[in-house]
Specification:
Layout: H1 9-34, H2 44-64, E1 68-73, E2 76-81, E3 91-96, E4 105-109, E5 117-120, E6 127-135, E7 142-148, E8 150-156
Antiparallel strand pairs: 1-2, 1-8, 2-5, 3-4, 3-6, 6-7
Length: about 160
Amino acid sequence: MKTSWYKEPWAWLVFILPFTAVVAGIATFIIANTNPDTLVVGDYYKKGKAINLELSKVKLAQKLGMRFDLQLHNNQLVIKPTGIEKVFPLLNVNFFHPTLEDKDFYLALTPDGNGYFRHHFDQEVSGKWRITISPFEGHWKIQNTISLPQANFIEIVPNLTEAN
């Protein structure tokens, strides 16, 4: 006595494996197209030269004794120079998110009467950030990886291992 093919459990087992592979392939295609990776640098030689230039900026910051204390508490960012007595007319502060490029932002801060650089954020800034501090002229820079918010002041110092 013969039964129909769709009533056999072995037939469904044979069909379910290729069907799950097709569904997984479609899901992978959708994920890959909605979250594309950033492109690799095409001219890596020029990028390498730029990295060497950036390292020289960090070395200059070390030589000049640049140091800053940073605090972010209640959406209020405070950066105060601690290693030098020079007054800066403007500080460039870049915040880079480690994984989401669209969250990166830039601040141009001017000092208040005490020489502190302040900024109030409208929304909370939290998580791990790579911060770069440089003067308006851009002849030196400091890079550090920090976690925000910070209720206490943390020291931002030039470090060649943090530079890229």
